Amino acid sequence: MSDCNNRIIAPSILAADWSRIGEEVGRAEQAGADWLHLDVMDGHFVENVSFGPQFVAAVRTRATITLDVHLMMTRPDKYLDRFISAGADRITVHVEADHNVSDTLARTRAAGLGCGLALNPATPVEAVMPYLDRVDLLLVMTVVPGFGGQAFMENETMPKVAAALAYRQSSGLSYHIQVDGGIDQRTVSIAAAHGANVMVAGTALFGASDMAQAVLKMRG
Fold first, then answer.
1. Closest C-alpha among 209, 202, 72, 87 to residue 149
2. Which among 46, 58, 70, 180 is least buried, having the fewest CB atoms inside 10 angstroms?
3. What total of structural domains would you count in the chain?
4. pTM given for the model
5. Catalytic residue chosen out of the listed positions 34, 136, 180, 184
6. For the segment 108-138, what is each residue's pLDDT rounded down to a tens digit?
């Protein structure tokens, strides 16, 4: 986990053209993406519904880079094994979800995967602090989760990113700090200035006419 200071660009599959998902995965890889971010939404924890383990498995057959799977689900513990089997490299769960957070993280780690913890804009950063010595990634949602295309919530979320960075340094930990929601060529530098190093972006990357150029710009 020594690369927590390196900037990682993770295009969000939600913004890809799903009718050509294999080509879209290839396009992201050729553009220089580090990870692919897959948002799983259950229609309960968030209002939207996206895809399940079979879709993740389909992406896995085409992807050679890290599959960063974000479970926006009320019961991530119930479905965890299916996403592990589908080929996820890292699984991030929400601190607000209805599960034993420590147990879910331990199961993810025991399976040999990277494990992450996410918090919503309305949740104080203190909610995740008891678990930060057990994760290799903290995801600070920079929009209310569930739908793409929302505006970046700088005032509500950037103090949490800064607090997570300060806690990481003072505790001698090495987790990545990831941001997701409203990340584009402008907001990426704001997030980086506060301490984020993993940038999830959907439309700003998959919607770009030259994705490689967009990745390069986002890398700074």
1. 202
2. 58
3. 1
4. 0.96
5. 180
6. 999 999 999 999 999 999 999 999 999 999 9
